[in-house]
Amino acid sequence: MTPGGYFFGVCAVVAVLGALATISARNPIRGAMGLLATIVGIAGMYVQLSAQFLAAIQLIVYAGAVVVLFVFVIMLLGPDAHGADGGKRPGSWARWIAAPLVSVLLLGGAVLLARVSTPQRFRAAPPGHGTIEAVGGDVFGRALVPFELSTALLIVAAVGAIAIARSRATKPSERPASVGATRRLFGGAIHPRDARTVDDEVAR
Amino acid sequence: MSAFGHVLEHYVLVATLIFGIGCVGFLVRRNVLVQLMSIELMLNAVNLALVAYDREQGAGSTGQTFAFFVIAVAAAEVAVGLAIILAFYRLRGTVDGDVADTLRH
Predict the structure, then answer these.
(1) Does residue A25 belong to the interface with chain B, where contact is any CB pair within 8 Å?
(2) Which residues lie closer than 8 Å to B88 by C-beta, 6 or more apart?
(3) Which end of chain A has the lower number of beta carbons within 10 A, N or C?
(4) Helix B8-28 crosses helix B32-57 at what angle (to 10 degrees)?
(5) How many domains does chain B have?
(6) Residue B69 is assigned to a structural domain of this protein
(7) In terms of CA atoms, which chain A residue is nearest residue B92?
(8) Which residues of B touch A156 (CB under 8 A)?
(9) Which residues of A are less than 8 Å from B4 in CB distance?
(10) Is residue B98 part of a domain?
(11) Is the ipTM above a cut-off of 0.90?
């Protein structure tokens, strides 16, 4: 086995084990760490596929922003982030049948693809494949309009996220001065145990 | 197996595995945070397949450009999704997805 083969094997095992940890962890923080392992493993496979720019983007956006956002929200929710898994839920048997069925069908399709086609090694990548120049030329060339639209999408998403997260906002003049700066910023209480105290202070 | 890790099918197999795991997590878990993470897993698996097929195809980098846009959309989705989870938690005091049934009644 070539060094590249070992690298791919390690990345694949890390990614799949991380995915399993993500969905099986009782503690969502552990789930976020599993997601991080999957993301790093997939970034390694991007390097193996000579997509260096995407590997860097993957690490910056996913490991640097998405996972951190998840961890922030989990810490904001505190112990209530564990949720109420387990116990009876309506229609749970249908999910338990449907979920493995979907996965087995997908996996069967992939295995069939591997059996039907004769696996061939990748041809040598053309020089500059997957570099910033190659992807950037595509993004700012043929995909310029979608790129500009995606910038608008990101701004709208950021504004929308703020608007959704700070519901129950009151006018600055109606906010009691005794409420802390964080609560003034977000309007309402983040945690239900604070809700009554904030409402009491508003009532006063 | 000297071609291990240099063949399209291996990457497609790993991508399918991760997609299936994410699918199971989304359907079986009740915690909306874990469900959102499962969606991320599925998006990542699709990205891996896109980049693998791009490498197979050789010339051009259409697949990588596509994966780039998927990453941008996924980032926006996570921001909005987590904000919705926060608002939902403020409303109901839990992150159990089965409690989110306001539109059903």
Answers:
(1) yes
(2) B32, B95, B100
(3) C
(4) 160
(5) 1
(6) yes
(7) A192
(8) 76
(9) 1-2, 5, 8-9
(10) no
(11) yes
